[in-house]
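User: Here's a chain of 126 residues. Predict its fold as C-alpha cells.
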Amino acid sequence: MNVNNSPKIFVVDDEETIHDLIALIFEEEDYQITSVSNAENLIEKISNEQPNIILLDIHLLDGDGRDLCNMIKASSKTAHIPVLLLSALNFDGLDLSCQPDGIIEKPFDMMNIIQKVNQLLKTNRV
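Assistant: Prediction complete.
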C-alpha cells in the first residue's frame, strides 16, 4: 500500500507502552501512526495532522479524554474524525459524558482493536 494513501491514526495516551503497542499492531496494516502523550494544543495538533481516526485515552495526566472527545466533536476542524476511547475502566454503567464513535477497554485484544478501527474507517469511508 502506498504510504500516502495509508489511513492515519492519531494516538493520545500518556503511556509510552501504548504508543509502542499500537504502532506495532498497525505496522502490519500499513497505517501511519502519530502519537502524542498530552492534551496540550490537541485540537491544533489534530487539525494539522488530519488523521482518519483518533485513539484517545480517557485518563491523561493533563486532561480527561471525555472532555477532549467533546472538544474534538465540537470543533468544525475535527468533528468529522471518528474517536475511539481507550480506558482501563470497566464501561458497564459508566457515564461517559461524551459521544465517542467507539470504546475499547484496556488491556485490549490485538484483533479487536484492528477490527474496531477498520470498522470505523469503513463506516466513515476512509
